[in-house]
UniProtKB/TrEMBL annotation, chain C:
<dbReference type="Pfam" id="PF12399">
    <property type="entry name" value="BCA_ABC_TP_C"/>
</dbReference>
<dbReference type="GO" id="GO:0005886">
    <property type="term" value="C:plasma membrane"/>
</dbReference>
<dbReference type="InterPro" id="IPR003439">
    <property type="entry name" value="ABC_transporter-like_ATP-bd"/>
</dbReference>
<dbReference type="InterPro" id="IPR017871">
    <property type="entry name" value="ABC_transporter-like_CS"/>
</dbReference>
<dbReference type="InterPro" id="IPR032823">
    <property type="entry name" value="BCA_ABC_TP_C"/>
</dbReference>
<keyword id="KW-0067">ATP-binding</keyword>
<dbReference type="InterPro" id="IPR027417">
    <property type="entry name" value="P-loop_NTPase"/>
</dbReference>
<feature type="domain" description="ABC transporter">
    <location>
        <begin position="5"/>
        <end position="246"/>
    </location>
</feature>
<dbReference type="GO" id="GO:0005524">
    <property type="term" value="F:ATP binding"/>
</dbReference>
<dbReference type="Pfam" id="PF00005">
    <property type="entry name" value="ABC_tran"/>
</dbReference>
<comment type="similarity">
    <text>Belongs to the ABC transporter superfamily.</text>
</comment>
<protein>
    <submittedName>
        <fullName>ABC transporter ATP-binding protein</fullName>
    </submittedName>
</protein>
<keyword id="KW-0813">Transport</keyword>
<dbReference type="InterPro" id="IPR003593">
    <property type="entry name" value="AAA+_ATPase"/>
</dbReference>
<keyword id="KW-0547">Nucleotide-binding</keyword>
<dbReference type="GO" id="GO:0016887">
    <property type="term" value="F:ATP hydrolysis activity"/>
</dbReference>
<dbReference type="InterPro" id="IPR051120">
    <property type="entry name" value="ABC_AA/LPS_Transport"/>
</dbReference>
Length: 335, 287, 252
């Protein structure tokens, strides 16, 4: 590989690298700000991070590959149950539990991708729903393994690095989750920038052009399902470690649909949107749903309608647009 | 033997109730290319209106049905003009999102006005009693649902294949600009088909209430079922929807009867197998 | 010269309708062949048969001596049978540079690597810059495709094909939709294609055909009615019948 690319070739990557570093710093700062500002709500904030991983994983499938899925919680739930079952059976090391969750999610992603990629369009969407519902029913039925409708409870993960207990205050869990989110986010940014990620974007735009380049779609998309599964599974495992319970709701159509709403609210296909959407959605839900769950539904419904009609690119797209309009004057003035 | 027969009759009636609700959705998706996840919400509105008319106003069951269909269509028409019309040519994802949004709103608003309880629609005595068919007796309501389903299937087939409206509808779907040039008022045709689909949903919601009880979460609870049935049958195909409803209805009822612990496990297993084997649905139109 | 590409007795029927009937065409290294024919002659079906998007009802397709009749579209591209599209198929949000780099990486077998850099791959970037410079696309190399002119998008289609280093190149109406003032750009790009490459061009613009092709085949109503030199096409009785006949029908 050429070590020193020509100055012209360096311009774009350098600028995007700077933007990425700023982005990572912003996420870390926002996360730490949450830690200082809401010390009594860390359990909730940890749940937000756990769900954010699910929504990030969904962005890989929907935003980068253009495959609509209403069954993403199948991957999240697989990770949550795998970590929960492992923890109850004596594997208590938190890092290992995350890996177990990610592995379970990846395997489920492999299966889900194999099935879903057989169809296109609406039947594909229906397959995603059928898969999550099937796993939901299976988890409900296999009560000896999953606790059935009561779920799993009583997991006690070992202290983080052998030092920090996962206590009632949830400080260790939150910082652990924040670290995990940052690592995953950086990894995903690299993946979507890789040749593989570019091909995925191409497949979303025009599969025929990709095949004319001599690239087979199926193995590429299947790999993205596996990666997506690992991310969602890690999110599920984090949820299991932090809350120390795993319920059937982690493997449900409702969670899948909510994840899609969060993603669309934040904006597809840039990873930041997934985080913004999750935080905004869950924060508002936390406040409004506590008052009246039906008001919450009406509000989400109205919000969805408004997004489709007025802001199809989601919050992050709208922010992008605003930023572009604001900086237009400067860029024209510059060279 | 007796058990098998009563399961079969139950499954048949349940399949027909599903068919009445789903056929409208199948037509909107297959002909108008609109993924309307709010379809179940309209069936639910129909159920609420009928329940209110029969229980609170003391009107007859038949009158309740008519009121439900008319009332639901009256609610749906302005929604079509304001919201649905803007997403006819948008992506599937946009359609899914907006119609989920509408569903959420309907659930929230319904609960605000009617509360979170289950709404019954009392049957008239003729339908509540068993009817003797000679070899065995069957609940009158079941027979009514089966007959309604057959009438709907036949009527729709006639409307689409044999009438001027059907020709205009199919022309508008094939090539909207050309049809407009030929003087077909496509917007009107779309609005009319939409109203028809919604009317059928409302009708199905009322007569199917014995199988799918009317409550605020109805629209969300059965959204998946309806979507699945339509996609298994192949959107836009009347015989496809009929076969899918009867097949999946049979699997669902039999599964619940024989292995109640498994819930919907076999239903969704069947869905995955059918969609994998027939990715365009049992009788889907080639794209 | 050795035959690099051949279709033998290739036929396709949809129901009872014979869309392509018993077509046999062979191409040698460095060949410049144009396939022409009136609308409805079956050219699109022919392209689909050759590229492997639909299976033939009968007949075979050979590339470099290998029978590729049963291979899918992707496998054919990997063996060196590359096509461009009649209506450009590009990724609107990507730059010309990114399109070409993707094609280069695929040729090298790296296109779907996860643990690699796309924009930081200096060798691929340099090669892409060379190809884009050859076609005069350097100025727009880093603009989004939606922002560049249609003529430049057509040139990009050719640039992508060049990056794939094909053995046989199928140009599906390379000048379609390009304003006539820009066709010289396309023509110049076609002249720069490697001399050893076998090129099959499907085109309506007869000026372009006559300047580019050294051999012409004419397809009408699904059958080959002429194979020979460009100079002889206009004089052929069957060709006149096919073209003028279709006007006579259209005028009725």
């Amino acid at each position: 590989m050429v070590q020193a690319p020509a100055p012209s070739a360096a311009a774009t990557p350098a600028r995007s690298l700077g933007r990425d570093l700023a982005g990572f710093a912003l996420i870390a700062l926002a996360g730490l700000a949450g830690y200082w500002l809401f010390p009594d709500n860390l359990a909730f904030l940890t749940r937000v991070i756990s769900v954010a991983l699910l929504v990030l994983s969904l962005d890989l499938i929907v935003g980068y590959c253009g495959i609509a899925s209403l069954g993403q919680a199948a991957l999240y739930g697989a990770g949550a149950y795998a970590a929960g079952i492992a923890c109850l059976n004596g594997v208590t090391e938190p890092f290992l539990l995350i890996l177990i969750g990610a592995a379970a999610g990846a395997v489920t992603g492999l299966l889900m991708g194999t099935v879903m990629l057989r169809a296109h369009g609406l039947p594909q969407l229906v397959l995603s729903i059928a898969i999550v519902q099937l796993l939901h029913e299976a988890a409900n039925k296999l009560a000896w393994l999953t606790g059935g409708s009561d779920g799993l409870a009583g997991m006690v993960p070992a202290p983080l690095f052998g030092l920090f207990e996962f206590d009632l205050w949830g400080r260790a869990a939150y910082l652990f989750g924040l670290g995990l989110l940052l690592v995953v986010f950086v990894a995903l940014k690299l993946i979507v920038r890789s040749p593989f990620g570019m091909v995925c974007r191409g497949l979303k735009e025009d599969p025929l052009r990709i095949s004319a380049l001599g690239i087979s779609a199926f193995p590429v998309l299947l790999r993205m399902f596996v990666i997506s599964g690992a991310v969602a599974g890690a999110g599920g495992a984090l949820g299991a470690i932090a809350t120390q319970v795993v319920g059937l709701d982690s493997l449900s159509f409702e969670l899948s649909a909510n994840a899609l709403v969060m993603l669309v609210l934040g904006g597809l296909g840039n990873l930041y949107g997934a985080l913004i959407g999750t935080v905004v959605f869950m924060a508002v839900e936390h406040i409004v749903a506590a008052i009246n769950p039906f008001h919450w539904m009406t509000l989400v419904g109205a919000l969805l309608i408004a997004i489709v009609l007025f802001a199809p690119r989601g919050l992050s797209g709208t922010l992008d647009e605003a930023a572009r309009i604001l900086t237009r004057g400067q860029r024209r003035a510059g060279p | 033997m007796q058990t098998a027969l009563s399961i079969a009759l139950d499954a048949f009636a349940y399949g027909m109730a599903l068919f009445i609700i789903c056929i409208g959705l199948s037509l909107t998706m297959g002909l108008m290319r609109l993924v309307n996840l709010a379809h179940g919400a309209f069936a639910m509105i129909g159920g609420y209106i009928a329940s209110y008319a029969v229980r609170n106003l003391g009107l007859g069951y038949g009158f309740g049905i008519v009121l439900a269909v008319v009332g639901t269509v009256l609610i749906a028409v302005p929604l079509e003009r304001l919201l649905f019309r803007r997403i006819y040519d948008r992506s599937e994802l946009s359609q899914v999102l907006m119609t989920i949004g509408i569903t959420f709103c309907v659930i929230g608003i319904t609960n605000y006005f009617f509360g979170p309880t289950l709404k019954t629609i009392p049957l008239p005595t003729e339908l509540a009693q068993p009817i003797d068919l000679g070899f065995r007796s069957i609940a009158g309501h079941r027979l009514f649902v089966i007959a309604s389903g057959l009438v709907v299937a036949g009527g729709l087939w006639f409307l689409i294949e044999r009438t001027g409206f059907g020709i205009h509808l199919r022309a508008a779907v094939e090539n909207a600009p050309m049809s407009r040039a030929l003087g077909v008022r496509t917007e009107l045709i779309y609005a009319a088909s939409f109203a028809l689909a919604i009317g059928l949903a409302a009708f199905g919601g009322v007569v199917g209430a014995e199988f799918l009880p009317i409550e605020p979460y109805y629209a969300l609870r059965y959204m998946v079922t309806f979507l699945v049935v339509v996609s298994v049958g192949g959107a836009g195909s009347i015989p496809g929807a009929l076969v899918a409803c009867l097949l999946l209805g049979a699997i669902d009822v039999t599964g619940r009867y024989l292995m109640p612990d498994f819930g919907n496990f076999f239903f969704y297993l069947a869905v995955i197998l059918v969609v994998c084997a027939f990715p365009r649905g049992l009788m889907g139109r080639a794209q | 010269m050795s035959t690099v590409f051949a279709v033998d007795h290739l036929s396709k029927s949809f129901g009872g309708l014979k869309v392509n009937h018993d077509l046999s065409i062979a191409m040698t290294e460095g060949e410049r062949l144009a396939l022409i024919g009136p609308n409805g002659a079956g050219k699109t079906t022919f392209v689909n048969l050759v590229t492997g998007r639909i299976p033939p009802s009968a007949g075979t397709v050979h590339l470099m001596g290998e029978d590729i009749t049963r291979l899918g579209a992707v496998a054919r591209v990997r063996r060196g049978l590359v096509r461009t599209f009649q209506v450009t198929r590009l990724f609107p949000d990507m730059t010309p540079e990114e399109h070409v780099v993707m094609a280069i990486l695929q040729r090298q077998g790296h296109a779907t690597r996860i643990l690699a850099r796309f924009h930081g791959n200096g060798a691929a970037m340099d090669e892409a810059a060379d190809i884009l410079a050859t076609l005069g696309l350097t100025d727009v190399a880093r603009r989004k495709v939606v922002e560049i002119a249609y003529g430049q998008q057509r040139l990009l289609e050719i640039a992508i094909a060049m990056a794939q280093r094909p053995k046989v190149l199928l140009l599906d109406e390379p000048a379609a939709g390009v304003p006539s003032s820009d066709t010289p750009l396309i023509e110049r790009a076609l002249e720069r294609l490697p001399a050893s490459l076998a090129v099959l061009m499907i085109e309506h613009d007869m000026d372009l055909v006559f300047r580019f092709a050294r051999r012409v085949v004419v397809l009408a109503a699904g059958e080959l009615i002429f194979q020979g030199l460009p100079a002889d096409v206009a004089r052929d009785e069957k060709v006149r019948e096919a073209y003028l006949g279709s006007y006579a029908h259209a005028g009725r």
